[in-house]
Amino acid sequence: MIPVGLDHLRFGAAAMLVGAFGGRPLCEAPAWSSSDAIRRFKRACAHPVFEHEMEPVAGNLATLIADSERNPWIWDDVLGGVRVVPGVEPLDALHDLLQQMSGASPGPWDLSLAQLPMNGWEVRFRFPELGEYVAGPDAFLAAREPYWLMLPPVIGEIGELLALLPRDEDVDRAMGHLGASGTGWRGRLERLSDDLHVLIRQRRRVVVRWSG
What we know:
It contains eleven helices and no strands. By secondary structure, the chain is mainly alpha-helical. Mean pLDDT is 79; it is low at 1-7 and 205-212.
């Protein structure tokens, strides 16, 4: 069975939360702290464009756990499998995750990006339009009409990414999470932003001429 989508009314938020782990185990392991994923999720919740809050997400996870206790196959169908460390039952890991969600994460949760860099999940969450553009500019423009009106969000995400990540290597790493290859992405993104501004101005002039 295919896992439910992130927009599923009953379980979507739980699937999104598990996605924040980036495929890492849900519970603590010697080389991995699940609290880091929770901190990243809380940081996402504080972002203006994120439509979820911690308390409803925890409630969504509690519903999934309750349903899974009655029907053990549900958690696998919803989440597509839950990675845990050896010797830990998946439902126990979900209970542990709920407990961490409902309380304070160990230590400060509002760590800076330098202290707790964005992982692939957070990068893709924060820069979805840029990610789609990078994946295929022609397909991006073809799917949006009129496309020049849809370019400002891409420009805005470029500006946000460059402002958040002052180090060039961090920009390159973030772009790698979006599927881009190579280095030197700060300069390349700055040029892309300039080019998109030009394209917007050209298209707007065409619209005005056509409307007249």
